[in-house]
Amino acid sequence: MLYIGNHTSSSKGYEAMAKQMIKNGGNTFAFFTRNPRGGKAKDIDPADVEKFRILIREQGFGKLVAHAPYTLNACAAKENLRVFAKETMAEDLNRMELIPGNYYNFHPGSHVGQGTQIGIEKIADVLNTVLTNEQSTTVLLETMAGKGSEVGGTFEEIKEILDLVEKKDKMGVCLDTCHVWDGGYDIADHLDEVLEEFDRVIGLKRLKAIHLNDSQNEMGSHKDRHARIGEGKIGLKALARVVCHPALEGIPFILETPNDDDGWTAEIALLKDQYAAGLEKRNL
After folding, report:
1. Where does the chain bind Zn(2+) 3 (predicted)?
2. Which of 68, 72, 161, 282 is the most exposed place for a label (fewest CB within 10 A)?
């Protein structure tokens, strides 16, 4: 089963997001829990949430991928920024229980000169503060491109964070195709080997979601510039192999390409066709 959708705006509420995704041809989606630049989260209407839950159940949606604001930096040097990260994540995870059993994705953060190891320890500390036994949401560390002082630009750095988290059953990973490509992982010509490396270092059981993006840059550029599917350096054939890979069956694929709804509708249809063709070839 292919679960695919795009990153959409949460400003109109949950039911509106689901209806837009159905119109786009998707059966999953991602959304920011609040303004991506931070600030107070919008009040949630319980009636809207109930209509939403009924709709996605009827439509057979896959897991949803909420996204923390970009301003959340769990390994910031300034204590007030780390307090913001803890408070924001705790509040977001509490709100996520209105749509239980889904995913909450965040960028590990930037160590801003403190060093990668200190950054890793601070990220784990935030997670150990906010994760609870009762939560049904799985928190996902996103693979990064390794630009500047970003933490999470290698599988090893992601693993080091996971190793320090106490409630490991509440954790997973979201792999961003643009990020890992820009980070130096050749998913175009060596996808099997990259997934084998991920499995060896982190474990494929931890891979819960894919951000499916092409890249404007050459492999290893460490720049993080997303491109539309088939218009970048990774290419359509390579991204189709990602969608069709049997090891990734059943996990949500989220488009974060620079597009509008018409563009995402076209990309979703294209990738559905690629998946169907790949499935047919696999079954021959």
Report:
1. 179, 224, 226
2. 282
